[in-house]
Design brief:
With 76 residues, the chain is α+β, with helices and mostly antiparallel strands. Helices cover 14% and strands 21% of the residues.
């Protein structure tokens, strides 16, 4: 069964957080989504995560999505 981890999940429940060093496996952009499968992890930008979600989500062990960070207010 798949689990969804979001930014609202307590930090101690998450094994990791994505940083600017994590890159999309499809295009190399900053990764905001980490998908854990039986065979390993895949990293995706928000665009590619949404593109592949319907195909990967049913078999994913974990779907960690931090794409809401893209919508944060960044006014200085």
């Amino acid at each position: 069964m798949s689990q969804i981890a979001t930014e609202d999940s307590p930090v101690d429940e998450l094994d990791y957080t994505l940083s600017a060093l994590d890159r999309c496996d499809s295009c190399g952009a900053q990764a905001y989504i980490r998908v854990t499968l039986k065979t390993g992890d895949l990293l995706f930008c928000a665009h590619h995560g949404n593109e592949f979600k319907d195909k990967l989500f049913p078999t994913a062990l974990n779907w960690h999505d931090e794409s809401a960070r893209l919508l944060e207010d960044r006014t200085v």
